[in-house]
Design a protein that fits this description.
Elements: E1 15-21, E2 26-33, H1 36-53, H2 57-73, H3 75-86, H4 90-108, E3 115-117, E4 123-131, E5 134-138, H5 144-157, E6 161-165, H6 172-182, E7 190-192, H7 199-204, E8 211-215, H8 218-228, E9 234-238, E10 243-247, H9 253-265, E11 275-281, H10 285-298, H11 317-332, E12 336-339, E13 354-357, H12 364-367, E14 374-380, H13 383-390, E15 398-402, H14 406-413, E16 420-423, E17 442-443, H15 448-453, E18 456-464
Helix pairs in contact: 2-4, 2-6, 3-4, 3-6, 4-5, 9-10
Bound molecules: nicotinamide-adenine-dinucleotide.
């Protein structure tokens, strides 16, 4: 009797969704809108691949180094794809790709330490570190590649496999990155899935996932934590920020103005740890506003593909509407735009770089995360008032203090309630440092060895000491 025919029903093709170029507002491509059964199959394969991947740390190191080389080789294609869907200038896309490769190399060479505890008992306790299993990474649209790398580099180095979901606003560069990484990694060790909601929610609550590492907004972070509670998976949340820059009265405004401007406006202000509020001594307030406004009025805004562009568009229509709305609200509250203040009259999601003054401290542009090219500059009369205001929101990602006397600046920085405080610059991170927000800005620690251990669990073996 002939063997029964295997099920030959053709695989159903995923639906697709449009991807929009923010510089034109037009759809230019599409990506798969993956179904729940496809996600189940991906998680299942990630689980099977885990058993081989976890077994050989030396092979992991080699594969991750090769992955870094492959990312660099694909730099031109990745940069073009990233700029087209995200909007950032090409030079910034190249920088993001360089950081993606650097993260892979950093974690390729990092290994957990086995420790032995001998505390007088007749046993040794040996602490070893074990991977968790398939890890889900969910990332936003502002730095799709480098934020994904901040998750997959430590997770894979630790011996886990990964299912990575980019934002539906920026799926294409991540899909391309997935195929580039696949040339260096064993099959199914890292899989990119794309789709609109509820794909992220399903991934976060999937019973086959042992760690959900999420970067995005505070409300979605809460939803992810709730979803992951279903399987009691570990959760790491890197959430929003509303970083303050506190300027001291001994600053030289001309000297710091460029650095301060770019700390707020890089990536069109769409940076979790951008400067989102400036506090200037009342005596210097007008000079600071003028210096920032002059830069906002002259910076070249355009498509990221144009080599002259320094500031691209806002990434998507919803974010543009939000930026417009908080700016309108601030003006209704009494603020004045020293530069910008409105959408640019051209196709695409362009908003004029905006410096706001006379902003009431309770206006949402101060108390919430604007996440766009709009910066309120507020005067203060005493340092205590400035520190209280800097610490006075629900966020606590980063903050900075700007002054000529570095000891004095550091003493003020020490009073900021946040994960990272900078002096005379903002948002520079070392690969080797811990990265963690306080208050609503996050749960768990990423970066450096802490990021590696965040993807591991301790396993302790007790054995009698030798006689
Ligand atoms: P978002 O929270 O809207 O989306 C983030 C990701 O979650 C996307 O992939 C999205 O598709 C997915 N998602 C949406 N709903 C979901 C759900 N119910 N369950 C699971 N996943 C879901 O954030 P965004 O608008 O893409 O990004 C901007 C935000 O990200 C800002 O608040 C910014 O500060 C924050 N951010 C934080 C960091 C950090 O390291 N702390 C870094 C970059 C950006």
């Amino acid at each position: 009797m002939p063997a029964p025919e295997p099920d030959r029903a053709p695989a159903r093709r995923s639906a697709r969704f449009a991807v929009i170029d923010p510089a034109t507002g037009e759809a230019f491509d599409e990506a798969p809108d993956q179904r729940p059964d496809e996600l189940d199959a991906v998680v299942d394969r990630a689980h099977r691949a885990w058993h081989g991947w976890r077994a050989d740390p030396a092979a992991r190191t080699t594969a991750l180094r090769r992955a870094a080389d492959a990312v660099e080789r694909a730099g031109d294609d990745l940069a073009r794809s990233l700029t087209r869907e995200q909007g950032k200038p090409l030079a910034e896309s190249y920088a993001e790709i360089a950081r993606t490769a650097a993260r892979l190399r950093y974690f390729a060479d990092l290994a957990p330490r086995t420790r032995r505890i001998t505390d007088g008992r007749p046993v040794h306790s040996e602490i070893r570190w074990r991977p968790l299993g398939p890890v889900a990474a969910i990332v936003p649209w502002n730095f799709p590649l480098q934020l994904a790398a901040a998750k997959f580099a430590p997770a894979l180095a630790a011996g886990n496999t990964m299912v990575l979901k980019p934002s539906p606003y920026t799926p294409l560069a991540t899909r391309l990155l997935g195929s580039v990484l696949a040339t260096a990694l064993p099959k199914d060790v890292l899989t990119v899935v794309t789709g609109r909601e509820p794909l992220g929610a399903r991934l976060a609550s999937h019973p086959g996932i042992r760690h959900v590492t999420f970067t995005g907004s505070v409300p979605t972070g809460r939803a992810v934590a709730e979803a992951a509670a279903a399987s009691l998976a570990r959760v790491t949340l890197e959430l929003g920020g509303n970083d303050a820059a506190v300027l001291l009265d001994d600053i030289d405004v001309d000297r710091i103005a460029d650095r301060l401007f770019w700390a707020a406006f890089r990536n069109c202000g769409q940076v979790c740890m951008a400067v989102k509020r400036v506090y200037a001594p009342a005596r210097l307030h007008a000079e600071v506003v003028e210096a920032l406004a002059q830069r906002a009025k002259t910076v070249v805004v355009g498509a990221g593909t144009d080599p002259d562009t320094r500031l691209g568009p806002v990434n998507n229509a919803a974010q543009l509407a939000r930026v417009e709305q908080v700016t309108k609200q601030a003006r209704a509250d009494g603020a004045r735009a020293a530069a910008g203040g409105r959408r640019l009259d051209r196709p695409g999601y362009f908003f004029a770089p905006t410096i706001l003054t006379d902003v009431p401290p309770a206006s949402p542009v101060v108390t919430e995360e604007q996440f766009g090219p709009v910066l309120p500059v507020l005067p203060y009369r005493s340092l205590d008032e400035a520190v209280d205001a800097a610490n006075g929101t629900g966020f606590g990602l980063g903050g900075s203090v700007w002054g000529t006397d570095l000891d004095r600046a550091e003493a003020v920085a020490d009073r900021l309630e946040c994960g990272t405080a900078w002096i005379n610059h903002h948002a520079e991170l070392s690969l080797a440092q811990p990265f963690a927000g306080v208050k609503n800005s996050g749960v768990g620690v990423a970066g450096g060895p802490w990021g590696l251990y965040g993807n591991l669990r301790p396993f302790v073996v007790h054995r009698p000491r030798e006689a």
